[in-house]
Amino acid sequence: MTQASLTPAADPTTLVSLPALHQAAALLEGVVVRSPLIEVPALSARLGVPVALKCEQLQVVGAFKLRGAYNAIARVAAAGSARGVVTQSSGNHGQAVAFAARAFGLRAVVVMPSSTPKIKVEGVRRYGGEVVFAGATRSGEQLQRAEAIARDEGLEMIPPYDHPDVVAGQGTVGLEILEQRPDVTTILVPVSGGGLISGISVAVGSLRPEVNLIGVEPAGAPKLSAALAAGAPQTLDHTQSIADGLLARSIGAFTFPILRRVVRMAVQVSESDIADAVRFLHREAGLMSEPSGAVAVAALLAGLVRPSGPAVAVLSGGNVDPDLYQRLVG
Questions:
Q1: Is residue 307 part of a domain?
Q2: Which of 104, 149, 276, 285 has its CA 20 to 30 A from that of 18?
Q3: What is the pLDDT of residues 183-211, one digit of tens each?
Q4: In a domain, 2, yes or no
Q5: In 16-139, which ranges are continuous DSSP H helix?
Q6: Please, are residues 278 and 261 in contact by the beta-carbon 8 Å criterion?
């Protein structure tokens, strides 16, 4: 299914199903890493229950985003009607789109804010993507520019989260967690536009509805908290955090109806909580995480979530500016 096939009347909850997740998993086999669950003894001791990290920073592009991008672009390539793809991204999705497009011999254009960390811009270019800058910070300017490029140059839009094939690909993270840790009681997931947590919610809701699925977001970007409180996506005036991958101003219009059937709770972590989590992962687990990837661990360390049984925190990415990382762990 491509972006063009979506209609305003389409029900997201019927477009992403458990069979769609299994189809995505079959397509992604041999392409993405079946990332390990790593238990960190110091974290488990602090919480008093087994806590494991789902290490998505080990993907070839350094983040979970490859799952959704590859699943969507594979279907675009199979349709054979597009000359390439275009997206807007602050980093990890753009790298994933560039990598997947190159695998299928398609052109990839990624529209990014000019404030995007250099490491993520270089990542897009390393995988053969063309970078177009629009706007100083994350805003509607990137989407408008991407849509114009798609229209003018005959490229297919691959949204970062509001797309059924993207959500189904991200949902394979949930399938793996439930297979790897069948006794899990709580799963914590970083949240930006909601692609990852909505995909995981399909797996959890279909297979283990008793599991407590919790969204974690920066205090400076509480879009899921706002949406859950209002019962619908709300657009924040401004978002700000060192977790640069979690700065969407609104939860996705497509992802929210899916995740709200399972997700009842979102917690917000402070900037110091996030920095502490990056430092903890470095010192206690020998794992490099970008701030966005560490927020689920931050929620546990800060005592915002107290699991009653085995828990899994998704470590969603590891693409961090080297200078920033040294400041955080030093």
A1: yes
A2: 104
A3: 999 999 999 999 999 999 999 999 999 99
A4: no
A5: 18-28, 41-47, 65-79, 92-103, 118-126
A6: no
